[in-house]
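FORM 7B: Structural annotation worksheet

SECTION A. Query
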Amino acid sequence: AMALVFGLATDPDLRARLGRRLAQIVREDGYRIGTGFVGTPLVMDALCATGHLYAASRLLLQTEAPSWLYPVTVGATTVWERWDALLPDGSVNGHEMTSFNHYALGAVVDWLHRGLAGLSAAEPGFARLRVAPAVLPGLTSAGSRQVTPYGPAEAGWDRTGDRVRVTALVPPGATAEVVLPDGTRHQVGSGAHAWEVGLADELPATVLRGLDTDLADLVDDPEALALVRAEVAAFDPGRARAFTGALRYEAGSTLRTALMFADPDGLDRVHAALTDLHDTRTTEETP
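SECTION B. Predicted structure
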């Protein structure tokens, strides 16, 4: 992420490879964030800059620890020093670094304005704005408003089906460069502006093969992953917790391998559940 965001990698092919590798790491970690104080402010920029919007969306919207939204699920109203300062059972993490008011990991909010809503200063003082929203799968709208020396500036977008409407408010005396989600660019002056473009989400294609399902396919299929976790929890709660903890969702590794020591009857349940899900989807897709 640092090499991509700080411009240390400039060759297009190298940047593409780094982006793919970063997205792969994020997926292998189950779309749970693994960065610290340095990488956290950069990871969303790096993923979006290299076109990995699905990975960015899954990372942003993740609610399992570690993630930005996990603290919200257990009642947090501040940003913590640790991703899991409060454990799921309500107890305080016993680690010595357990501040409940420590903003560093909340640096993603800066990206929510600059990246998701797409509003930033192209020049110091906002004499020139940049409007370049990242329209993530799973979200339907975003917006940002900044009070600049020239007056209020705004940018935002909303999605209806496969159409996205981007809006911008440029204050008097300022100009803006606009990069729409389809890549088209505009230069505009002060006033209210709006554009509409087509945009279809690029979602990963997954294949369910029962216990032989690739772990990369499994983590990219939230419905199937939730189904497997529920089935495993029914016969082995401890092993089910591994699916939200230590398990790495690596391409080439299968669900059968991940559950190699599980009870055979439980394995049959998991296999049957995934097979039923696959068959149901196939039936629904058949004209």
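SECTION C. Observations
The first strand starts at residue 119 and ends at 121. The chain has three domains: 2-109, 118-198, 215-285.

SECTION D. Sign-off
Analyst initials: ____
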